[in-house]
Amino acid sequence: MFSLENVETFSQEIRKSRFHAVAGPVASEQAAREFIAAHSDSGATHNCWAWRMGQNYRFNDDGEPGGTAGKPILQAIDGQSLDGVVVLVTRWFGGILLGSGGLMRAYGGTAASCLRAAAKVELVATVDVAIGCGFSDLALVKARLSARAGVHIAGETFGAEGAELVVTLPERELQETIRMVTDITSGRAAITPPD
């Protein structure tokens, strides 16, 4: 899954109607609503939108025939494997009716073109792991963890015998990281995987 790095816009004219899309990353439903309110044009004929955050999604046709605007925008989001994204497509009517199929292609196509042009960032599921090790192993463990892509030492506490590290790492790297720490400490490290 991917999300957007920043806000992106795209405009096109289809049979004398002007379509303008604006897409951006959002972290909550409230943020999506604020984004839509901030980018909607009250002078436009329609401000249609869709957003997705995990299993939660919403879309709105804003007066267009049911299913001809919001749903194609959502399909453009899903078609590019995006999450945490909102897209607003604003239409200024140009006098020529597009029909249901034409509206679906216009809204979905405008949203898809906007999303294709946007810089994307991969969403990686992370987990926190507690690693306890003696002072004799600490420098090597920290060096090896820091050398792994996506691994971040989020916390460090010291005791009489050594240190406990809180390590944030990609979920898919969990077993390999546990194996690496176990190997380099000859099994001396105490590793507490996530629940």
Automatic annotation (TrEMBL):
Alphabetical GO biological process terms: regulation of translational initiation
Domain UPF0029, first and last residues per copy: 132-188
Entry-linked Gene3D superfamilies: 3.30.70.240, Impact, N-terminal domain (3.30.230.30)
GO molecular function: guanyl ribonucleotide binding; ribonucleoside triphosphate phosphatase activity
Annotated GO CC locations: cytoplasm
InterPro entries: EFG_III/V, Impact, Impact_N, Impact_N_sf, Ribosomal_Su5_D2-typ_SF, UPF0029_Impact_C, UPF0029_Impact_CS
Pfam family, one: DUF1949
Every Impact N-terminal domain range: 15-115
Family indicated by similarity: Belongs to the IMPACT family.
Protein name according to UniProt: Putative YigZ family protein
Protein species of origin: Pseudaminobacter salicylatoxidans
